[in-house]
Amino acid sequence: MAESILIIDDEVLTLNNLKRALEKEGYEILLADSGETGIEVFKQHRPNLVLVDLMLPGVDGIEVLRQIKGADANTVVIMITAYEILEKAIESMKLGAYDYLLKPFKIGDLKINVARALELQSLKIRVTETVETEKGKYYFDRIIAKNKKMKEVLETARKVAQLDKTTILITGESGVGKELLARAIHYNSPRVDEQFIEINCAAIPEGLLESELFGYEPGAFTDARRRKIGLFEKADHGTIFLDEIADMPLPLQAKILKVLEEQSLTRLGSTSQIKIDVRIITASNRDLQRLTKDGSFREDLFYRLNVVPLAILPLRKRKEDIIPLTLCFITELNKELHRSFRGISEEAAKILLEYDWPGNVRELKNLIERIMALHQAEEIEIEHLPMEIKSRTVVADTEVMRETGDEHEFVTLSELERRYIKKVLEYTEGNKSRAAKILGIHLTSLFRKLKSMK
After folding, report:
1. For the packed helices 61-71 and 86-94, what is the interaxial angle rounded to 10 degrees?
2. Which of 265, 234, 242 is nearest to 98 (CA)?
């Protein structure tokens, strides 16, 4: 179904010209030659977008805007005005107008503004439609935390989620679940019905990051042919999550600080201030306080972001979460991959508990998904685990150095192999067939190695 646009203007020639131009773009057009008629047409048809001339006889454009926004706050309204009454156009922006166009304007500019406005409205509608699903997915109760310190982090996050504007800095190694916690805070906050927008500061080239965050006006730089709404504007009344904030260049850090302090921004190529109401959550896998000392991160911004710090432990420091997380992933992936795994064997669980998980929760989830994608079984068994997990688990507990006085001397490869084989046999309680599988060698080869070790 074509998107509908209501045009309200007392000049018949303007109505007809705009109608022809916008119908060519595939829109359904409704017309009204007065404010009173426009309000009635709006109530009857509820168009996606309204173009309103500010200078209307009788009920003027400002009053039309008020009544439309009162009936449906999500309707996009663009005002049309002459330069002489620019102040009224600015007033209309405060009342909820999306934008204004100064007469005389180019039809091309109108088409661009309309397309952008409808794109933004469509995004808001999609967010509204998915909010209930997202809320269920990001309940705090669904975040696995058996570890005492992690429970304390979640309890703090629950409290701060309700504070609405308080900035939060989430720290932790890559893969620990910083984005998950940020989303849980948003979907359990007063901003739940508004947008959550995530941007990875390390993934966007430095030259593009500023325009992505703040948007730009036509002509702001060589390729800026049309207006772009930045992510901060799109997140208005919602939450913006700046991941890997440590990778943000210093000049841009100053602008983020200004947004935090003034709750306003300026698009590139413009001098107009745009008021916004955005909650900022940031995350980093680096020590920002240490970075302030070497000058690579602004100290004033650090203290402004670090109002409530939430530090997520690496998985190796919360071993009690490993098996509950594994069982949670099995349940989720059974539905996704059409499998019927019931759990994990005791032997396989022991290997997972002994492994150090350098990739944290992300690595664990990827491992479980790989196993379940490749195998059909009732449980995850030790033979399903890849050799790199099994071998690193055993080697981690095997001394590879020995002390001789004040110096360290590396053991030989043959001695390391002997210790490794011994450790595996201890683990399998002398079962040589299982030990050979873990070692990735034939049983005959194991017997030969054991004979040479005597």
Report:
1. 10
2. 234
CATH topology (fold) of 4-126: Rossmann fold (3.40.50)
- The phi, psi pair for 434, rounded to 5°, reads -65, -40
Q: In residues, how long is the chain?
A: 454
How far is Cα of residue 302 from the mean position of the Cα atoms in its chain? 21
pLDDT of 404 reads 44
CB-CB contact of 308 with 169 (8 Å)? yes
pTM comes to 0.64
Q: What is the rounded CA–CA span in Å between residue 364 and residue 346?
A: 17
Lowest mean pLDDT among 7-21, 213-227, 245-259, 343-357: 213-227
- Which CATH code, of 3.30.499.10, 3.20.10.10, 3.30.70.20, 1.10.10.60, is assigned to 398-454? 1.10.10.60
Q: Are 98 and 75 in contact (CB under 8 A)?
A: no
Kindly report the CA angle at 269 between 69 and 299, in degrees rounded to 5? 95
Do 188 and 140 meet the contact criterion of CB atoms below 8 Å apart? Answer: yes
Q: Does domain 138-311 have CATH number 3.40.50.300?
A: yes
Region 315-384: CATH code = 1.10.8.60
